[in-house]
Amino acid sequence: MIRAAGTTLALGAGAWSTVAAQTVKDLAGGPAVNQLNFHPPVTRIAEEQHWLHWFMMALCAVIFVIVFGVMFYSILKHRKSVGHKSQALAEPIWVELGWTIVPLLIVIGMALPATKVLVAQKDTTNSDLTIKATGMQWKWGYDYIKGEGEGIGFLSTLDTSHRVMSNSGKPEATDDYLLKVDNPLVVPVNRKVRIITTANDVIHAWMVPAFGVKQDAIPGFVRDTWFRAEKTGDFYGQCAELCGKEHAYMPIHVKVVSAEEYTAWVADKNKAMAAAADDPSKVWTLADLVKRGESVYAANCAACHQASGKGAGPIKPLDGSAIVTDKDHGKMITVMLNGAAGGAMPAWKQLSDTELAAVMTFAKNSWSNNTEQIVQPAEVQAARQ
Length: 385
Hints:
Helix content: 25-40%
Largest sheet: 5 strands, mixed
Structural class: alpha+beta
Strand content: 15-25%
Number of helices: 10
């Protein structure tokens, strides 16, 4: 997460002139321009990691100077060109013990503080909040499992405006480029937050450098880590495993707020979830489902299949697709629930029955697909069972 700011050089009338290009500034809680060091820490674990990093660097530098200093001194002082003659030297026991015991003590001196930090990183007991972070191609799903906010769940996806900027090939000078999401993870300050990681498809990794946290999210496995943010603000990370072609579009945004603000957010989120809760037995009209499906498609499908439905490269088009236009809705529902092409088309079980029905109805009635077919949520619900 290192970015560079540049300038454009123009040659004119026999002299060089420097023209300021669009510049990117440091992002608070995120990457900095020409960043060399770690992110400023906001957790005790991150502080310990910083100290450990510089301790190891200093120790290695001292060893380097001593070892190579003695070596080059010996080469210069005892070279043959100044008349030095080689001689057989006895190997006293103190020499043998010295070059065995001293490195052992150095290794122990390095291992003790490193082990302390490593053990502390894995101590997820007595957490105030437990949140499951599910990696999927290419977004994060968050479920608040324990603590205040229990029951809240949502998807966090790259903001569509940043996708448009990326696709244009000429992104604007934006400090949070490819780091802005539609739904950030919200947690309270000075509370121990346990993060449980898993994945739906391939290996991902939940990483927020300012927290000193990086934990792989592996399909079929459950791993955990934790953090306690000591400052409020916005903090950014990214998936740290090469999870596919959209790997660079899988940011993490954690918003740390005060206890009072968090309580208010939980209340608002619960109200919003209750209002958005859909009855899968409800029978929708074509117009309402298409309207609902348009927003679902823009947030989840347009990145690969394009807003035009034409696809791109190996991504198959939806416009004119036999599966999309087929009157047998079961084929498309199966693909949406289970994925296809060995994972190239990911499964979308995390979407609700209504959202899946809406996006399929949208695809069946958009572009040149004027089928007038309706996929009702009850059909999706039945296919899940």
